[in-house]
Write a structure and sequence with these properties.
The complex is a heterodimer. By secondary structure, chain A is an alpha/beta fold. Chain A has eight helices and nine strands. The longest helix of chain A has 17 residues. Chain B is 22% helix and 32% strand. Chain B has a domain of 81 residues: hypothetical protein PF0899 fold (2-Layer Sandwich), CATH 3.30.2320.
Chain lengths: 259, 124
Amino acid sequence: MLTPNKTLIYRHHDGHKGPHSHPHPHGGGMETQRSGSREIKVVRRVLDANDLMAARNRELFAAKKIFVLNVMSSPGSGKTTTLQKTLSHLMPGLRCAVIVGDICTTIDADRLAVSGAPVVQINTDAFGGDCHLAAHVIERAVAGIDLDAVDLLIVENIGNLVCPAEFDIGEDKRVVVLSVTEGEDKPAKYPLMFRQCDAMLLNKIDLLPHLEYDVQATLASVAQIHPGMPVFQISAKTEEGFEAWLAWLRTQVAEKQKS
Amino acid sequence: MHEMGIAMDILRIVQESIPAEMTGAKVQRVNLKVGQLSAIVPDSLRFCFKVVAADTVADGAELAVEEVPVEARCNDCGHAWTIEDAVFVCPQCKGGRVEMLSGRELDIVSIELSEEEGKHADPQ
């Protein structure tokens, strides 16, 4: 909503400004003859190839009874530290594996491999520097993992609150990590991500005494975008709040194994 | 940021959708539906499509983007409304069990083709 003294100079979607923004009247037939041109109905999702691959991944994970968690956040939210600590609590009770996506470097994979879990690093610069992990990339990555020895597969997506929300990779649940150093307005600025996720981790709460961060404002914002989504307030550094987060995750894995 | 990949997907689907008998066809326009809650910037998508479509059947084709509003329905009271400002709480009953009916689209609706003169079989 705009206040009266502000002007919106750029809309995310500008469909009404384009030269051809009116809805098309479509006939019932496959194609309609227009003056000098033929219109051919297509009606396909642009991401149908990704959706198909994601469905295949999901089938594979279902057959192996592997719970797959897609972890997303902006860069620097503490995803990797959170996952390091999470793995240290879950293993060896649960057999975990990790796929970690970055544009460059194997730094995150090296950090996560300390846990003893099999880790596959994906560098998307080989795929054109992609800003997200797509389903076919996951398919290739799991080829390097013994799936018969895995209960929980964690996919650490590329640090980005926009694009990964658009791409199904065949996961069971999605988690977004937000850190208190990023600002209370992030959910409102990236509603698709917070709408698409099944749980949220509010990380770095050990820093709250040093910040003017309004936790209640964040929670209120999340409650508008995704009412009822569980939010776990944690510190990956001190492991404060980890019990509830780990309990949620263990429940998800157990339910997948019962399925 | 992923508009280049999306543009390549669009070009692939466009190429697959041209009937085999239309050998000389040129794509004039691609009609897309993009939901308001999709992570796509139409201007970036148009630019990327122009780049990937160069020297193909879709060279110079227009990407026409129809914006689809976010329509929702409350699973508690049945109220249906259009969501603005990303508030997914029912304005009637304040419930949070809200189902999105539209707004996530990223669909190709149709393509418009022109046929080059002389490429048709001669009726005589």
